[in-house]
Write a structure and sequence with these properties.
With about 425 residues, this protein is an alpha/beta fold. The chain is about 35% helix and about 25% strand. Strands 3, 4, 5, 6, 11, 12, 13, 14 and 15 form a 9-stranded mixed sheet that branches. Strands 1, 2, 7, 8, 9, 10, 16 and 17 form an 8-stranded mixed sheet that branches. A hairpin with a 6-residue loop joins strand 12 and strand 13 (about 290-295). Helix 2 runs parallel beside helix 6, helix 2 (about 40-55) runs parallel beside helix 10 and helix 3 packs across helix 10.
């Protein structure tokens, strides 16, 4: 493994401020469940809660630690929306599908907020998010989004800001032309959310096993899921490994590309400085292909992320790669120390629409959230639970979309995509 990926949690700010320190045992026996979930990130743990609340006996198998992957490493931004451009799927899902998924993009945030409040999960949930415009065309897109949200009676405050208002209300930087505030989106501590939800699931009767990597899955009327030291017999299985699924299911792994995303965290900032940078504590994200995203932590560090890497290789020094980007936005931080640097893999799909569906009557999956995993994982979990419990078939809107496998096979698909993204980055500059 690389220095970014070891068997333990990365030495991130999130790990240093972890509130839920529970440890779960390794599976060392043969056991059974109604549903076995492979993967202990947001998708797996949220699905476990949804199903346990419906009365199912659930087992979760995690290869490392709960929230070890992208769920515990990401930027912690809870951003409204599912997918990047639903219009391109009109031929597959129709207007009804577009409308349904658009509504789910709002519902997804509500699922997270409601669960945090219901179970009193300590994860620093803070509402308030702002998109930042790098170019005039981004302002036009914001105006279109604003009108659409107003027409659909969006239940939260949204506002368009010109450059002057943006600088006084949102961000102390001269780099952006304007923005759009969304008070229905926000930010949180993702590792505390995931491990806090794991505690909720465990309290609901879910059996969670860590350090229990799945080696094989034998499908049939009863699914047999084998680990190095044990196995689970289950009526149904959910594959929730996403970017870390590996070769466990080659049909799925070929459709999701692990892409690196990286973050640095400063030392705690003075009151004067953090008020100067982000005066109203919004999470923010720019609109470049190679986007920057950043926010304040609860103890007022700047968490600055970006540099999405499609090559499959982690940078030798994350700080050296991200620090200059941070200073371009905030030259005020020239003398500020960096206390933490970390990264991980997010799952990218070729068309940027999450992949949620069934491989067989009793084999389900969800993956490829393409940077919107904090909220969409929770929506996916609800859709899977609704389908398994016979409540709704809302999952069909995603199942209708065909997802291509990345070309080049296991070893060439990352380099080929990296070349393609390099082209898009160049067009983004000019």
């Amino acid at each position: 493994m690389s220095t970014v990926h070891t068997n333990e949690y990365p030495r991130s700010y999130y790990y240093a401020s972890l509130k839920y320190q529970q440890n779960y045992s390794t599976l060392t026996e043969s056991t059974s469940a109604d549903i076995c979930i492979v993967g202990g990130g947001f998708t797996g743990i949220a699905s476990a809660i949804e199903l346990a609340e419906r009365g199912y006996k659930v087992i979760v198998l995690e290869a490392h630690k709960i929230g070890w992957g992208a769920s515990g490493r990401n930027g912690g931004q809870l951003i409204r929306g599912i997918g990047h451009d639903l219009e391109i799927f009109r031929n597959s899902i129709g207007q009804h599908g577009i409308d349904a998924i658009t509504k789910m993009g709002i519902e997804a945030n509500k699922i997270v907020v409601d669960r945090v409040n219901k179970y009193h999960i300590e994860c620093d949930l803070t509402m308030g998010y702002c998109d930042l415009a790098n170019k005039p065309k981004h302002l036009i897109t914001f105006e279109q989004d604003f009108k659409q949200l107003e027409q659909n009676n969006y239940p939260h405050q949204i506002r368009l800001l010109d450059k002057s208002a943006l600088q006084s209300e949102v961000i102390g930087s001269n780099n952006y032309l304007g923005g759009m505030i969304d008070m229905g989106s926000g930010h949180l501590h993702p590792l505390n959310l995931c491990t806090g939800e794991a505690k909720v699931a465990n309290d609901l009767g879910v059996q969670i096993f860590e350090n229990s990597a799945v080696l094989s899955i034998d499908e049939g009327s009863t699914v047999i899921i084998k680990t190095a030291q044990g196995q689970v017999s289950a009526k149904q299985v959910i594959l929730a490994g996403n970017a870390y699924l590996g070769d466990l299911n080659k049909k799925l792994s070929g459709k999701v590309l692990p892409a690196g995303s990286y973050i640095i965290a400063t030392e705690p900032l003075s009151d004067e400085l953090h008020q100067q940078l982000l005066p109203n504590n919004h999470a923010v994200c720019d609109q470049k292909i190679d986007l920057d995203y950043f926010r304040l932590s609860a103890d007022k560090r700047l968490l600055f992320g970006g540099m999405c890497n499609y090559s499959g290789r982690d940078p030798k020094n994350i700080k050296a790669a991200l620090y200059p980007k941070m200073l371009k936005v905030f030259p005020q931080l020239t003398e500020t120390k960096i206390d933490y640097q970390w990264g991980g893999m997010i799952g990218i799909g070729a068309n940027r629409l999450p992949q949620i569906g069934q491989l067989a009557s009793n084999v389900f999956y969800a993956q490829a959230y393409s940077g919107h995993g904090v909220n969409v994982t929770h929506m996916a979990a609800k859709l899977l639970a609704e389908k398994i419990n016979g409540e709704t078939d809302r999952i069909k809107h995603f199942s209708k979309v065909k997802h291509m496998s990345f070309p080049g096979g296991k070893y060439l698909r990352s380099p080929l995509l990296a070349l393609g993204m390099m082209y898009h980055k160049m067009t983004d500059i000019f």
